[in-house]
Amino acid sequence: MGCQHLEEIYELYLLGALAPDDRAKVEEHVERGCPNCLEHLREAALAVYFLCFTERPVRPRPQRKAQLLRRLRKK
Ligand SMILES: [Zn+2]
């Protein structure tokens, strides 16, 4: 399997959404130490991290927000 195809499925791999067959192919390829894929995998990991992070925004409760604002004004 070439790198080109793998680049499209890194995110799915990291999210655990790949079929076992594809998952094994990705792991086998990366374990061979392909520097191109290691780099892309790192980028994909960051993308997935931000995706998860923005999908579940931490909204402070109004009371908490007021507390924070008060604390910020004191400084
Ligand atoms: Zn590769």
Write the layout of secondary structure elements.
Layout: H1 3-7, H2 10-14, H3 20-31, H4 35-55, H5 62-74
Give a verbal description of the structure:
The protein has a single domain (3-74), classed as Orthogonal Bundle (Arc Repressor Mutant, subunit A). It has helices spanning 3-7, 10-14, 20-31, 35-55, 62-74. 75% of the residues lie in helices and 0% in strands. It contains 5 helices and no strands. The structure holds zinc ion. The site of zinc ion has 6 residues, from helix 1 and helix 4.
Bound molecules: zinc ion
How many strands? Answer: 0
Assign the CATH topology: Arc Repressor Mutant, subunit A
Which percent range describes the beta-strand content? under 5%
Looking at this protein, list some descriptive labels.
75 residues, mainly alpha, Arc Repressor Mutant, subunit A, elongated, binds zinc ion
